[in-house]
Amino acid sequence: MIWAAVLIASVGTYIEKLAGYVLPTRLMEGAALRRLTALLPVVLLAALVAVQTFASGQSLVLDARVAGLAAAIIALIARAPFIVVVVVAAITAALLRAGGWSA
Amino acid sequence: MSRRSITANAVGIGVATGAYGLSFGAISVASGLDFWQTQTLSLAMFTGASQFALVGVLGAGGGMVAAVITALLLGARNGLYAMSLSPLLRLRRGPSLVAAQLTIDESTAMAIRHGEDPQAARHAFWATGLSVFVLWNIGTAIGAVGATAVDDPAVLGLDAAIPAGFIALLWPRLTSRRTRLLALCAALVALVLVPFVPAGVPVLGAAAVALGADALVRRRRTP
Description:
With 103 residues, chain A is mainly alpha-helical. Chain A has helices spanning 2-22, 31-54, 64-77, 82-98, and strands at residues 55-56, 59-60. Chain A has a two-stranded antiparallel sheet. In chain A, strand 1 (55-56) and strand 2 (59-60) form a beta hairpin. The longest helix of chain A is centred in the middle third of the chain and has 24 residues, at 31-54. Chain A is elongated. Chain A starts with a helix and ends in a 5-residue tail after the last helix. The mean pLDDT of chain A is 90. Chain B has 223 residues and is mainly α. Chain B has two domains: 3-159, no CATH class; 174-223, no CATH class. Chain B has ten helices and no strands. Chain B has helices at 3-30, 35-45, 48-59, 64-89, 93-101, 105-113, 118-148, 158-170, 177-193, 201-221. In chain B, helix 6 packs antiparallel against helix 7. The termini of chain B are far apart. The interface between A and B is large, with 76 and 96 residues.
């Protein structure tokens, strides 16, 4: 099942990219479409942040991921590069668990 | 800007995304994908946000359909990039098949920055696209191999790295009060939905609600 998702989504994202070169350019002039495509990443990524931080299956939990997210936000405010943001979050969560302060 | 300095910039962007590919490789394996599934995503899908979303939703038990839809919705912007690049790059059919795969945030931004000089724009697009492709895939491989050696991802805090990766992708897009409000709204709706619908659905539902609310507010303001 994972392979099916990997392959279908890969073909799909390639078709999306290719469509832009093949389809007539006037389709791009639709302001609503442009706006929708620009806003989609914002709402999807925000929802993903929330779910990946607080959800465990179908329940909401508070664990070390919250501290990791807080650390990531501080790193972003400090203009740290992507890899630093991710590593800081992971280390924060790992330390809290190692110290027995968090699940 | 000279051809050489464009190439140097392209390599710099490649190195930065390579480091980010490292975290993708590790997170993907921590989410339950194996090495080859992870590497196939970086080779064949090659668009970071969609890759992170696919493995995030699958790892949370969200199922194939929700994972694929989330990845495709995030990838839709690449089609728009291609439409703006098309008149600038003026490609024949053959090269456009390759260019399509390299059409991502970084290559588009670099090409458009040199939009006033089509030759420089073309060079910026290909140099950035190829450099990111190569280094993103090398990064992915190293990250995936590294994470395969770890038994429990939670010990290393890799589960906390997933939301951190998403917020790092989101952060530069929060450019106005409107986008920040929309993001907050989507996050809250997603959390409210979590207990009531299967994993994977809250993200899609939240996106639909947030965009619907945005459309309603806009219609009211512009009679």
